Every structure is written in C-alpha cells, then in structure tokens.
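Example (one chain per record):
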Amino acid sequence: MTKINLLDWRAERRARRLEQFRNFMVLGLVVAVGIVALGYLGMTNAISQQQQRNDYLKQQIAEIDQKIKEIEDLERTKQNLLARMRVIEELQGSRSATVHFFDELVNTIPDGITLSSIKQVGDNVTIEGVAESNGRISSYIKSFESSPWFAEPKLVVIKTSEKNKQREGAFTLQVKNLTKAVKEDPAAAAPGAKP
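Predicted structure:
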C-alpha cells in the first residue's frame, strides 16, 4: 500500500524550523540568563572581596594613625624632657659661674672703693660706688680690663663731692660679664687669660 502525503512539505519544514528556533531561543535565553547570573555573582563576589580589603586597609590605617599619634606624643614628651635637661644643665653650670662672678668682683676692687649697688641685665653689669679719688676709679677700670671674667668696662657717670673735708667720687660703671662665655670655653678661665 502506498502512502501519499497530501500535506505541504514546506509548511511542515517551516513548522519544524520554527520549533527548533523556539528551542534554540529558549536554550539561548537560559544560557544568557545563566551567564548574566554568573557575571552578577562574580561581580558581587569581587565587590565583596574589595570591600573586605578596603575595610582591612581602613583598619590598618586607623592603627597606624594611632601609632603615629603615640609617636608624636612621645616626641613632644622627649622635647619637653630635653628642654628640662638643658635648663637643669644651665642651672648646674651657672652655679659655679655665679661664684666666679662674685669672687672676681671682690678681687678687682682696689683699696679706697666702696660699692653701693650691683645690677645685672643679661651680660651687662652696672656697678655703682664711691671712691676716695679718681685714680682709684681708674685703677678699678684697669683691673676689669685685666680680668678674664669681665670685658669692656665703661665709666658712665662720675660725681665728685666733698664730705667732711674729704673728696669723694660717686661713680657708675658698666662692664660685660663673661662668666657664661668662660664656662663654655674653659681654656679662657686660665689665670691671666684674656677672652
């Protein structure tokens, strides 16, 4: 028995191709959705890992900032301690300088001079006193010139008066105190040394 196909073979082929196309479209859509889902998961995972790295870096930066602050505090404390040590060293050194200052002041006074006032501002010392004669004041200035602890003596004022038939000269003298310089340069402290 012979079978005759009365259906249009082109319509059947078209229907088969349309079915295949729909299958491929569905398959393509499933693959595309799978790829997009994998890409989304990959990007989400990458963002999550990067966020964890950023959080770790922020934590490390915060710890380092804290350490830097502690170091700065320690530096400030160190500078304060060094400043205090310098002040203590200066005070220790100035103890002997004060002794030398007064010792040399006594050694330079010739007979016939009485001191009434000694004032020091910085390195400048102002000395006021009374002398029996102008010659005594002159020898007092010369003794300052030969002293290793004093320099640049200047006679500022001299007033001569007669009291009880004796002549007196009230004077004001300025001299530079070198005890600090001698303390810093001990070679200058040798007897008779002139800075």
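Caption: The mean pLDDT is 80.
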